TrEMBL record:
Domain of life: Eukaryota
Organism of origin: Magnusiomyces paraingens
InterPro entries (alphabetical): FAD/NAD-bd_sf, OSGIN1/2
The name this protein goes by in its record: L-ornithine N(5)-oxygenase
Signal peptide: none
UniProt xrefs under PANTHER family: FAD_NAD(P)-BINDING DOMAIN-CONTAINING PROTEIN, PROTEIN CBG05349
């Protein structure tokens, strides 16, 4: 829904309306977090408690946790003591906020268990006028399209469960559990992994519940962000955007601060260009179904599909005339692929093509078996498949086309054994190349082996490409690209993953002065966004840089900064809110002189 532009004029424009933007908006509305050692007792880490005591709420005012997320003593301590189960690179700001929300992993089981040590106080004087533009039809970002009523939702995604437990997806101020209990009469279980439709509805309800809805302009695509000089001679940002309901009308807003929250999963601008201008763009996050072309698919075509990191489902046009009954071919090594294997395995046989090396096996390895038994089951199948493949391929073969080829496949198959269809099988193939696919779904897989390559042929009823998704920063104009220090202005901004900023954006260091293309400020004035690396002088290790501030007035939050789990995005949003407030206070001081 398009809302009227809020008054007063926004100081901050946020691009993207996912969970990170929702939480930032909550903060910019003047909701301030304080350390709360009283409600459920002090944090069990007594040293952290002593460091945070000064950030407790006092009616006379004082520092809040928005200051704590920039306190280098606190962050250094967190860095030395805390680590995420998910990634060793999770930044200390994220870990600090996470441990204040729930002091250990098991506490995310339910809202009651969490025992948050954050007290939220509404301080209207700290509010910052802002506006949030997002392509999805409702707030929620990449989740928004998952509403079960959505016509663009692929049937396979209906009822798909989240990776996280409900309370890991909750945002401060209004939790998933509170939403669920309002919307449903039944209770919510501990350790529940909600379905995507419920999460979508939760994020859509969040701004309404908290009175933030006036600043959200959904179904709105930002087409360009560039820096310009305004009438007062100040450098500011010019943001061009359009509403999908009437895309012929191009709108512009000028602002001193832009926050990029556009994520790494969708490319609405590209979709807008691709689709007829009057259609609502179909989210690339939704698996589009395509018929296999009449001539089938060559290896090159399929590899292009796989490396484009766009999910897709390919469906045969006809039924194969011979051979075994079709299986589903799932391509991918991560959580989405595991999810697809588990779901498809309930009704079909599954062939799973995945990447594997001893040094770098599947990302599923990072997920604790106790928390994610279903992914542990798929990982076990994959491990067994690697072993079976190694043994099968160790047998000498005279040519890659010998007659016993499908015998190889038979020896490698395993029962899926998920209780639903006990006779369905799983055939895992590691590092296989899909050589070709016929229009009727006859697939030829090439298995590389030390004793020579082997091929396997199989009939498939569906090919699910689950090799990851990507986002886009193509909407950044040349001067903003330079400001962000994107090493090459020509860097491919059309397909970005969560490591993009880490790889391409420069670190906005203390010693750096602006170049001609940057805004006319000296960054010596600005505090570091991250604590120094453990060894003084040493370069920060990959992932320890936050990339929250890309240049003066230009910020990034959410998955764009490398933190893809909602629970680990909250700290970065708090740091950005802190920095925006700090710079506003400085500007006011300067004006008062
Ligand atoms: C299939 C899937 C399952 C996931 N499951 C989980 C999970 O269980 N738990 C978890 O913690 N995380 C999960 N994630 C990770 C995901 O990173 C987060 O859940 C979260 O959605 C990221 O939030 P965000 O605010 O960074 O961006 P997003 O949610 O990606 O939202 C950004 C929005 O900005 C929009 N946008 C982009 N460009 C423009 C533009 N030019 N103009 C206007 N709008 C624009 C995009 O269309 C998008 O809607 C999952 C991700 C995927 C893809």
């Amino acid at each position: 829904m398009t809302n009227p532009r809020p008054d007063p004029a926004p100081v901050v424009v946020v691009v993207g309306n996912g969970p990170a933007a929702l939480f930032l908006s909550y903060l910019l509305h003047g909701n301030v977090p304080f350390y709360d050692p009283a409600t459920t007792g002090p944090h069990p880490d007594s040293h952290l408690h002593s460091l945070l005591k000064k950030y407790s709420y006092t009616p006379s005012g004082g520092p809040s946790l928005l200051d704590a997320v920039a306190d280098l003593t606190v962050l250094d301590y967190i860095r030395s003591r805390y680590v995420s189960f998910y990634s060793v690179n999770t930044n200390p700001i994220a870990l600090l906020v996470d441990t204040l929300i729930a002091s250990d992993e098991a506490r995310f089981a339910s809202l009651a268990c969490k025992q948050s040590r954050i007290k939220w106080v509404h301080l209207p004087d700290t509010a910052v006028p802002h506006i949030v533009f997002g392509a999805s039809p409702a707030p929620g970002g990449q989740w928004a399209f998952s509403d079960n009523n959505s016509s663009v939702l692929h049937p396979d995604e209906k009822d798909q469960q989240s990776l996280s437990y409900a309370e890991m997806l909750s945002l401060p101020g209004y939790s998933f559990t509170e939403f669920f209990l309002t919307a449903n009469t039944n209770q919510i279980d501990d350790y529940v992994r909600p379905c995507r439709g419920d999460i979508s509805r939760y994020y859509a309800a969040y701004p309404h519940q908290l009175g933030l809805e006036n600043v959200f302009q959904s179904s709105t695509v930002v087409t360009s962000v560039d820096s310009v000089i305004n009438d007062s001679g100040e450098r500011i940002f010019r943001v061009d955007y359009l509403h999908l309901k009437d895309p012929t009308v191009r709108l512009t807003i000028q602002t001193p601060v832009v926050v990029l929250a556009s994520g790494v999963f969708e490319k609405p601008l590209k979709e807008l260009r691709k689709n007829s201008i009057h259609q609502r763009p179909v989210s690339p996050g939704i698996m589009p179904t395509r018929l296999l072309p009449p001539q089938g698919v060559s290896r090159e075509d399929l590899e292009a599909d796989i490396s484009s990191r766009e999910p897709a489902v390919l469906v045969p046009q006809c039924v194969p005339s011979d051979g075994p009954s079709p299986a589903v071919l799932v391509i991918g090594s991560g959580v989405s692929a595991a999810e697809a294997v588990a779901r498809c395995g309930q009704t079909s046989n599954v062939i799973h093509a995945f990447q594997w090396s001893n040094a770098n096996p599947s990302p599923l390895r990072r997920l604790a078996r106790e928390s994610y038994p279903e992914y542990a089951r798929i990982l076990k199948l994959m491990k067994r498949a690697v072993k079976a493949q190694r043994e099968a391929l160790a047998q000498p073969t005279t040519s890659p086309h010998d007659t016993g080829l499908d015998q190889v496949a038979i020896t490698m198959r395993q029962p899926l054994d998920d209780g639903n269809k006990p006779h369905s099988w799983y055939l895992g193939v590691a590092n296989a190349l899909v050589q070709s696919v016929s229009p009727c779904g006859r697939v030829t897989l090439l298995l590389p082996g030390e004793m020579g390559n082997r091929t396997i042929t199989a009939n498939v009823s569906k090919i699910k490409i689950c090799t990851g998704r990507s986002g886009s920063l193509e909407y950044l104009g040349p001067s903003v690209r330079r400001l962000a220090g994107l090493r090459s202005v020509n860097a491919d901004l059309g397909s970005i993953s969560k490591t993009f900023l880490e790889t391409h954006a420069r670190e906005f260091s203390k010693d750096e002065v602006s170049d001609d293309d940057s805004l006319s400020i000296c960054s010596n004035d600005l505090p570091d966004c991250c604590p120094p690396s453990p060894k003084p002088g040493a370069a920060s290790s990959p992932g320890t840089s936050c990339h929250l501030r890309l240049g003066h007035g230009l910020y990034a939050i959410g998955s764009l900064t490398g933190e893809t789990l909602v629970r680990f995005m909250l700290g970065g949003c708090m740091w950005v809110a802190h920095d925006i407030n700090l710079n506003r206070a400085r500007s006011k001081e300067l004006l008062a002189i």
